[in-house]
Amino acid sequence: MIGAESLVRTLIASGVDACFANPGTSEMHFVAALDRASGMRSVLGLFEGVVTGAADAYARMTGKPAATLMHCGPGLANGLSLLHNAKRARVPIVNIVGDEATYHEPLDPPLTTDTEGLARPVSAWVRKVKRTEVLGSEAAAAVAAARETSGIATLILPSDVSWNEGGVVGTPLPVPPRSKAPDESIREAARVLRQREETLILMSGAALSEAGLMIAYRIASATGARLSAQTFNTRVARGRGRYPIQRVPYFVDEAVKENAGVKHLILAGTGMPVTFFAYPNKPGMATPPDAKVHVLARTEDDVVDALARLADELGAPDVPVADRPAPDVRRGRITPEGASETLAALLPDSSIIIEEAITLRNFFFNALTNAAPHDSLENIGGAIGAGPPLATGAAIAAPGRRVVGVQADGSAMYTIQALWTQARENLDVTTVVLSNNKYAVLFRELAAVGATPGKTANDLFEINRPDLDWLRLSESMGVEAARAETLDQFADLLRYSFARKGPFLIELVIDRG
Amino acid sequence: MIGAESLVRTLIASGVDACFANPGTSEMHFVAALDRASGMRSVLGLFEGVVTGAADAYARMTGKPAATLMHCGPGLANGLSLLHNAKRARVPIVNIVGDEATYHEPLDPPLTTDTEGLARPVSAWVRKVKRTEVLGSEAAAAVAAARETSGIATLILPSDVSWNEGGVVGTPLPVPPRSKAPDESIREAARVLRQREETLILMSGAALSEAGLMIAYRIASATGARLSAQTFNTRVARGRGRYPIQRVPYFVDEAVKENAGVKHLILAGTGMPVTFFAYPNKPGMATPPDAKVHVLARTEDDVVDALARLADELGAPDVPVADRPAPDVRRGRITPEGASETLAALLPDSSIIIEEAITLRNFFFNALTNAAPHDSLENIGGAIGAGPPLATGAAIAAPGRRVVGVQADGSAMYTIQALWTQARENLDVTTVVLSNNKYAVLFRELAAVGATPGKTANDLFEINRPDLDWLRLSESMGVEAARAETLDQFADLLRYSFARKGPFLIELVIDRG
Q1: pLDDT in tens, B107-159
Q2: pTM: predicted TM-score of the whole model, two decimal places
């Protein structure tokens, strides 16, 4: 058996059943091996960012790693920014990066670069496999490392290691369960909560699952503590029937104001509420510097278990989540409130929301609180262009569920090639492009640092001249599209898209001021 | 003066007059400073690959570095693959990468990553500036390093270093001239050439300028040596009136066959003719293993000087380049030969050809040999998606000259956002998309490694289902476009585009077999 086949069979045996791929010459044998084994779905992306972002969402929705297939250091480089996001999302991914043959690389052919060096900033595990005999066992180790660390494993595969005979299918390795928070942390949190001083329980990760939120709500109801999610999160259970968790605002002034009175900060599966950026003469943390910090569960711990033990320690009774009325479809002129309420009114049950729209995100967040139950995946690492690839991967991972991208126009352009994969795979993705023709956030950030935009700044922040024609752009890659210039049209287009299979794009014309 | 202003003023004083930018929050003060200083043209790219690829071409055409402006590690990551190409092209670039404030980064905000680690594989000089007072002098050092090494200098700029007062404009630093090849190398090459055994003079870099080629032709005529360029080169002077330099074929069998008899290999400003990839049971070098290698000039030496000294040493007389007839416009069905002849017949004088079309490149190369005089920029590092950004940067660097991209469809999709910048800046770029709906090279490579394509391989190598609609895609970003289904149409569209200002895209429907 050649190395490539042992690799593919090991991945499949280890539970990896999807491969997001953008292959090149060095990966030929891997591709051929995909045809000889069964049990791996291969999905082509026209750009590596599509591949890595899709693998991120796949892991968020299934809890298990997908493989990526990329070509040499430069191919990996194109996927790195969305691997950064995946690292921050703490999800498992197994990258397979084809590379020059071991005996050819010393000759320094054109694609030679420090592939391991490129992989390291985003990877928990990086290994370049030098011998065919160990490729299978290394692949098993890669999958185990990705799962154990909830992180990224990058296996660099020289082409001769791939094509040589001598491959041995690796035995899947066991993955230990998540660590438990120590009893002392539970007791300490309970002690703090019983004092009934102003306390914020800051949550992320699995604490934001439906189960985690229900337990946290018991704790909050019993103690008067306030609950909040981090500003951005990997996956949040939202909509009616779920506890309506709030989150730390993105803009620093709002975040600081909201948390000004916090005396105790309890961290449940997350770190401190650090602001995205520093600004002159503004704090870098959403909570006051003198708030006392208590770690209930570290990021790597089983936070749902920790919350459950805390609720029991407090004797906190079950609390039903109050019914909330569904929003109404709105009519007339497009406003951020009206658009988000309309989407929330029409959102199908069990949808997946992918939101990447920094200046308008609160409108959608607020309205969707009362939508049908759904999951929300967010851009947690800040590398932009996450939305279209995440939507693609989520749809592959969760067939039968509608995926809705709430997508800023500027961000969409980084990875717009994802639309083509959505068309090819006929994925149930509805992309709502919030078309305002500018990097709106940058005008706001420029003001935040005390500068006024001159001609150059305007040139660099406006993405009109020419306007992007979203309908043609979408249709050019096989995704039907239409423009909404009123809320009535928006509602009609949402209904149309939600009633049928396959992808659709709506250009929502908004805030051209 | 704040740091950002000292940085911008230092760059301008050091001769950097163009900035290709995709800014984010950390770069706000730099953007504001661009408005306070004059002498720097700022060009927005909607994706960082556009920015870095354009800077590469700018340097190829002007010989001097442009600045790039990117946002944090993830922004740099998106530009890395085309920086890899720029490194291989040995051109100067100065990257400005905004980053988290020095005091905020230790809090590990979401965009934090090892920005220096990401920069290092492509950079000759990497420095993270920690104090505003030295930002100007570090910027001067960055420009000098880029120029001296013909490489990439990456200056990482924490936002507080940018916004703090205390900036001092840096003094431009002198750059030493290129090293001269030692006399011994000249004499050794002359001795070899006088033996009149089968000798290949392999050239790259400045040896492929009009002056370099003329001198090399003198040497070849006087000695019977054969001249060849590397497979891919930074910039080649081509067309009528220039010596019609050949190049080492990309496909290894052709390359080995062509050079089978070579006894002596003289390297003129380049390394060995290493093949792009290794293949089972095939050599990794285009010349025989027993050919004797002689270094006339290293990559970093002044190769034109070395060639001139060698020609003088040999007493080689001037040789006029023979007149060659211009190709004819062809008619009828589209064939690779017909299309390339037609382009060559109509190409305006002083055009710039950007070719990224691996399976069809020889057709265009051969036909363009007899076109009007032009420069050719090639994808020298193998990271694909180089074409559209290179075309964009070349047009910014050389106003008044027509830029023609000969562009494979698969490659174009990696960085297609470049079209928008071409429209915004009204650049004289004509993009000819060779539309065959597949990664044709991969079918060829799969065969080369001895595998036959199964269903998965076909799925991963064909980029139809859906077909890309190039006209809509181009028009969506403001670039007028039309389809050529015959050579007559192709000729008409080329004439139309060449007769007017601004960008245009032609979908050349080719080889759908």
Answers
A1: 999 999 999 999 999 999 999 999 999 999 999 999 999 999 999 999 999 99
A2: 0.97
Per-residue pLDDT reduced to its tens digit, A65-80: 999 999 999 999 999 9
Q: How far does CA B428 lie from the centroid of its chain?
A: 18
Name B408's bridge partners: B434
B472–A467 CB contact, under 8 Å: no
Q: Domain residue spans in chain B?
A: 3-163, 183-313, 336-509
Closest CA to B34 of A496, A318, A459: A459
For chain A, say whether B438 makes contact (Cβ under 8 Å): no
- Name residues whose C-beta falls within 8 Å of residue A101's C-beta, 6 or more positions apart in sequence: A158, A159, A160, B277, B278, B284
Q: Is A26 on the interface with B (CB under 8 A)?
A: yes
A-chain residues within 8 Å CB-CB of B23?
A: 442, 460
Nearest of A147, A298, A309 to residue A212 by alpha carbon:
A309
For chain B, what is the mean pLDDT? 96
Distance from C-alpha of A363 to C-alpha of A365, rounded to nearest angstrom: 5
CB A498 within 8 A of CB A371: no
CATH number of A183-314: 3.40.50.1220
DSSP states along A353-389: EEEE-TTTHHHHHHHHTTSSSEEEEE--S--SS-HHH
Task: Please tell us whether the domain made up of B183-313 is placed in CATH 1.10.150.170.
Answer: no
Q: B277: which chain A residues are within 8 Å (Cβ-Cβ)?
A: 25-26, 100-101, 104, 109, 111, 159
- Alpha carbon distance B462, B245 (integer Å): 34
Spatial contact of A369 and A342, defined as CB atoms under 8 Å apart: no
Name the 3-class secondary structure at A274. strand
Domains A3-163 and A183-314 are alike in CATH topology:
yes
List residues bridging with B153 in a β-sheet.
Answer: B94, B125
Write out residues 470-489 of A within 8 Å (CB-CB) of B: 470-473, 475-478
CATH code, residues B3-163: 3.40.50.970
pLDDT at site A512: 55
| pLDDT range class, residue A463, cuts 50, 70, 90 | confident
> Cα B472–B478–B481 angle (5° rounding)?
50
* Parallel, antiparallel or unpaired: strands A374-378 and A236-238: antiparallel
Q: Does A416 touch chain B (CB under 8 A)?
A: yes
B contacts of A121 (beta carbons < 8 Å) = 73, 113-114, 117-118
Cα nearest neighbour of B80 on chain A: A77
Report the residue of B20, B26, B36, B46 to disrupt the A interface, i.e. the one with the largest count of A CBs within 10 Å.
Answer: B46
Of B98, B169, B469, B423, nearest in space to A449 by CA: B98
What whole-number distance in Å separates Cα of residue A384 and Cα of residue A442?
Answer: 13
On whether any CB of chain A is under 8 Å from the CB of B280, the answer is yes
Mutate to test the interface with A, among B100, B113, B468 (most CBs of A within 10 A): B113
- Cα nearest neighbour of A27 on chain B: B446
d(CA A227, CA A208): 11
| SS3 label, residue B236 | strand
Least confident of A495-504, B194-203, B456-465: B456-465
**Least CA distance to A480: which residue of chain B?**
B466
Q: What is the CATH number of domain B336-509?
A: 3.40.50.970
Selecting from A84, A441, A455 the residue whose C-beta is nearest the C-beta of B35 gives A455
Where residue B293 falls among pLDDT bands split at 50, 70, 90? very high
Helices (H) and strands (E) in chain B, counts: 20, 17
Binned at pLDDT 50, 70 and 90, residue B512 comes out as low
Give the mean pLDDT of A314-330.
96
Instruction: Look up the ipTM and state it.
Output: 0.97
